[in-house]
Amino acid sequence: MELKEVSGDQLVLSKQYGNTGLSVVSPQNEEEIQQVLRIANKEGKKVTVMGNGTKRGYGGVKEEYDLVLSLADYKGIVEHTVGDMTVTVRPGITIAELQDYLKKHDQMVSIDPSWPEQATVGGVIAANESGPKRLKYGSARDLVIGLRVVYADGSVIRTGGKVVKNVAGYDMNKLFIGAMGTLGVTSEITMKLRPVPKHESLVLLSIEENRLDELKKFIVKLQDSMIEPVSLELVVPSLSEKLFDRKEYTLLIAFEDVEKAVRYQEEWVAANKPEAAIQSVLSPKESREFWERFSNLQPNALNVNQLEDQVKAVVKISSKNMEVFHILEECRKMHQKNGIEVEAHGGLGHGLSYVMLSGPADAIKNTIIQLRDFVSTKNGYAVVKHLPFELRKEIDIWNGKPSYFFLFEGIKRKIDPENTLNHKRFIGGI
After folding, report:
1. pLDDT at 346 (0 to 100)
2. pLDDT score recorded for residue 6
3. Closest to 351 in 3D by CA, of 134, 174, 144
4. Is residue 426 part of a domain?
5. pLDDT at 83
6. Domain harbouring 347, CATH code
7. I want to staple 92 with a disulfide (CB 3.0 to 4.6 A). Which of 71, 127, 195, 263 is the partner?
8. Are 145 and 139 in contact (CB under 8 A)?
9. HSE-up of 367 (CA within 13 Å, CB side)?
């Protein structure tokens, strides 16, 4: 077997984010993945799995592994069943490449993670990524119906199936989705699809900080209605200023449906919005251009030109949906008093917020601690989604071990007893 192999020093992978390796192999088929893992497992070598590397700043307290298993070249469409609306792909294909292919058939994969031009499907699945449209479409975990996974010992299993109505047995897919590559290497992913919407628009509601209570009442009324937005994303003033040149809170209400239904929902918003809110509506073309720009807001390990005295971080927060108001208000205060740049947005339907921080390392650390303390008072939790390696050694990015951590340990010990795959990448150093 011949494997494309290059020295780690030749990679465009700085050690700033860790999760690198002494050498890199790029398998071209599943058999090569099996052989690499079988040899590594037998020889006690540690392997990290990578797509394009956008998430190298997400998790992990191990700077260097014996081997990087790169799946960036292991890409392509394995099977696309147009009538059943399912597609099976290899993990190295990017989200944008997949969407471009599906668009020719008026179909799409309903997920909107950050950096779709760079993020691979395998990486998105491993991290269980999602975007602001999670409100309607869910996360990666919700659209996967089947996987092929190579274990550390080289054996291959298949989970789920290739049809949407597959309900037999345990849903093993969820075991691997979000496990950060610690349990196995995904060699094929089968996902359910949706038709490309006939029409879409984005309604913007901007409102001053002292009128947020009116917006809260509007959100409750909207969620009690028959209106079905794709997103209900609230943006803090600092980020709204960058996106819209409006230093106010801005609510992003996205609609995707047939044109008549979209128009009706736009009119409902106009009739029921707070009087103090300024409304504007983006056309389908403007909406697509906006979401493309929005998806590239967060820093990742490939696109950060970090200054020596500046650090960029991303914190992901989960809370009850209406607590997002309080969390974003706290972010606004931190932007003013902590001497760093704080840009945040949160979903008023699904309760996930993302906070982007930029500033000196000590200020970033203190802000993350303060943010976690505040979120805990709201019965939420916060994980650090992007941070340089040296700071990850000082901050537990997973915010402690959950009460069910013993289950994670047991599963890892059973599936990968030698800790061959992505050792120390996940919660509790798994």
Report:
1. 98
2. 37
3. 134
4. no
5. 96
6. 3.30.70.100
7. 71
8. no
9. 31
